[in-house]
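Dear colleague,

As promised, here are the two records you asked about, laid out in our usual form so they can be pasted straight into your sheet.

NAME FIELD: protein one
SEQUENCE, THEN STRUCTURE:
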Amino acid sequence: MEHVLQHPPAEAVRRYLSIGFWLMAAGAAAALGLDLDGDVLV
């Protein structure tokens, strides 16, 4: 968390949104029964 105040807030927000997006995408894929290759397991 060094030099946080010197960076534009948009950069941090964009970073966290990107991380959150991939986490939700992975969770949704798991919930739908998809593996990492995108093949349907069910």
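NAME FIELD: protein two
SEQUENCE, THEN STRUCTURE:
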Amino acid sequence: MDALRLRPSLLSARPGAARPRAVQSLSDISPLFLTGLLEAVVAALFMNIYIVGLNQLFDIEIDKVNKPTLPLASGEYTPATGVAIVSVFAAMSFGLGWAVGSQPLFWALFISFVLGTAYSINLPYLRWKRSAVVAALCILAVRATFVFRRPAVFRRPLMFATGFMTFFSVVIALFKDIPDIEGDRIFGIRSFSVRLGQKKVFWICVGLLEMAYSVAILMGATSTSLWSKTATIAGHSILAAILWSCARSVDLTSKAAITSFYMFIWKLFYAEYLLIPLVR
């Protein structure tokens, strides 16, 4: 959907999205599982389009400074077109969630809808993105864990994945505002980057990720499985080294360089999906 220029978070960890950890063995990959996976991902996709589109509708003036190429900010699409798009996708998300008949999926979509609306909409007591803490909590909250059509059993891999992805979600919530500091400052959005400065928030984010990788390495070292120990330690050590090397080379005075590093963080996020199934 070019009209909304969707963000990398589109299918990252929205409620209802099935995860690799839901599969414990090859026998779990059945037609029922694949159907549930498709239903959950599509419903989450539709809801994410609503959330991202609504945010852009209420950030048109800010985006003229921070992201002038976005369709609404550039005038390529009118606000009326944006309203129509987000309304249709919200309705389709709820419609699919209702048709599936999964109460956890439907309520996860509803909670995402409420938080996404409160985050962006400019009404009294809302527009929660003005508060750095509340905004970060909203973003973290919608990255919930939900294993489709099976009870959550808190084994070691699940606890690791939940904790690790929580760290990543915090980093993403903090880092996403670093390139947008100019417009946020002008329009009174008190993000952590505005309050603490780009450089400090940048290195806080890098430090949190390196801490998460260190915990992952320790987790691997305590594994009783040799192949899991080797893969977990080696994989996270390599990613930690790459992260540190790239972070040191970022020009913090360049918006393009900071944005590029933000996209790199998303690559690390997706790379973790390859390592999580190896944790034992």
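A couple of things worth noting about protein two: The first helix runs from residue 31 to 58. Residues 1-153 form a domain with the Tetracycline Repressor; domain 2 fold (CATH 1.10.357).

Best,
R.
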